[in-house]
Write a structure and sequence with these properties.
single chain, 134 residues, mainly alpha, 7 helices
Length: 134
């Protein structure tokens, strides 16, 4: 969603998300540029990832039923306001993001969801493929 993307660009700009390349790019954007970039990417549909392993998706879907992701990301994982769209994400990106959340290297606004911190490597891999299959 557009609001999520705007929030993330500002997080790169303020180094709340300290990825140097992204921070440099965000530093050079005006507020109008930020809105335009966010609207552009929010309007795009996710492309199918060649890294998707459909055989891992069912285990990921089962694990997702135990989590509370739909409260913010909606039942179809399309996201809303400042909650990211998870459906259709590249499994490699989702794996990387969840791994960083579990390790504490990336914040997740749902501090009330401690079950994220307890995800195993296998859970993360399955969930990544589940989102990629959507």
């Amino acid at each position: 969603p557009r609001d999520y993307l705007v929030e993330q660009i500002y997080a790169f700009r303020t180094r709340l998300r300290p990825i140097e390349t992204m921070s440099i790019n965000a530093d050079n954007l005006s507020p109008a540029d930020i809105r335009n970039v966010a609207e552009y990417f929010a309007a795009r549909k996710p492309a199918r990832s060649p890294m998707l392993d459909p055989a891992q998706a069912p285990a990921g879907l089962a694990k997702l039923r135990q989590l509370h992701c739909t409260g913010c990301h909606l039942s179809d994982y399309s996201g809303r306001r400042t909650a990211a769209r998870l459906a259709g994400q590249n499994p490699k990106y989702t794996w990387w993001t969840l791994r960083d959340i579990v390790r504490g290297a990336r914040r997740h606004p749902a501090e009330a969801a401690p079950e994220l911190k307890a995800l195993s490597k296998q859970d993360i891999r399955h969930i990544a493929h589940a989102f990629g299959s959507m």
